[in-house]
Amino acid sequence: MLRGISNAASALKAQQLKLDITANNVANLNSTAFKKKEVQFKDLLYQDIAKRGNAVLPGTEKPVTAGTGTAMSAIRTDTRDGLLQTTGRELDFAIIGPGYFCVLMPDGTEAYTRAGEFQRDREGYLVTPQGYRVQFPQLPAEEQELRISEDGIITATTPTGEVTILGQVMLAYFNNPAGLVHLGGNLYAASPASGAPQIAQPGPHTRIKQFALESANVDLVSEMTNMILSQRNFSLNARALQTLDEMLQTANNIRR
C-alpha cells in the first residue's frame, strides 16, 4: 500500500512537469524560432516481492517484481525547422536547415540564436533585440540597399546602382544542437553535450532567407492533445492516491 502511494505520488510529480513543459510550449507559440520541448519518462527501480516457479527450468525460482514509480529522464528539444513567415523587413533573416547566428555577449562570450529579427546600431553592426552584437560584417549607410544571398554573401547597392560585396555570413554548427543550454531571449550557449561550435559558411543543407523569420515549431493541436492526456493522467493518479490513503486509514482503524 505504501508502495502504491509512492508510485502515485511520483506519477503526479511527473505529469505536473509535463504539463509545465506543455504550457511553456503553448506560451511561446509566437516566439521567433522557438523550439518546442518534450518530456521523456523512465520507470524507476523494481523490487522483489515474491518468488515463483520457472516452467523453463524446473527447480528454479524466478523473482516477482513490482515497480516503484516513474520520473523524468530527459527534456528533449525538437530542433526541426519552423515554418517561414515573410515579413518584408530588410534586417529579418531566417535559417533554413541547421545552423545558428553567432552573438557576442557583454561578458565577451558567444551565444547563438536562430531568431534573425535584427536591428542596426549606430556603428553599422547588426544587434539582437536585447542589443547584443551579431557576428556580421559592418554594414554601410542605411540609404544603401542590403542584400544577403542564400549562401550568406552580403552585398550593398548604392542609389546609383553600384554594388559592393561586404563579406560572408558565417554560421555556427553543432554535432548535437539539442544539447545547447537555453539562456532565454532566444539565445543558446554551447555545452559539453552540444559540442564545440563549428564555424562555417552556409553549406549545401543550409540557406539564409532574407525578409523572413522562422516561426516556432509548436503544433498547437498536438500540444492541446498532450495537455488533455496529461491532465487525465494526473487526475487518475490523484484518484489512486486518494483511494490508497483511504485504504491506509481503514487499516489503521482496524484495532480501534
Question: How much is the radius of gyration in Å?
Answer: 27 Å
Number of spatially distinct domains: 2
Major sheet details: 3 strands, antiparallel
Distance between the termini: 20 Å
What's the SSE pattern? HEEEEEEEEEEEEEEEEEEEEEH
Portion of residues within helices: 10-25%
Tell me, what's the shape? Answer: elongated
Structural class: alpha+beta
Average of pLDDT: 89
Short overview:
The protein is of the alpha+beta class.
Give the tags.
three-stranded antiparallel sheet; single chain; alpha+beta; 21 strands; 23% helix
What would you say this structure looks like, in words?
With 256 residues, the protein is α+β, with helices and mostly antiparallel strands. The protein folds into two domains: 2-79 and 218-249, no CATH class; 84-214, no CATH class. Helices cover 23% and strands 35% of the residues. It has helices at 2-27, 220-252; strands at 37-43, 46-53, 61-67, 70-77, 84-86, 92-96, 101-104, 110-113, 116-117, 119-120, 126-127, 133-134, 145-148, 153-157, 163-168, 171-173, 181-184, 187-189, 198-200, 207-210, 212-214. Strands 9-6-20 form a three-stranded antiparallel sheet, with no helix packed on it. Strands 8-7-12 form a three-stranded antiparallel sheet, with no helix packed on it. Strands 13-14-15 form a three-stranded antiparallel sheet, with no helix packed on it. It is elongated, with a radius of gyration of 27 Å. The two termini are 20 Å apart. The mean pLDDT is 89.
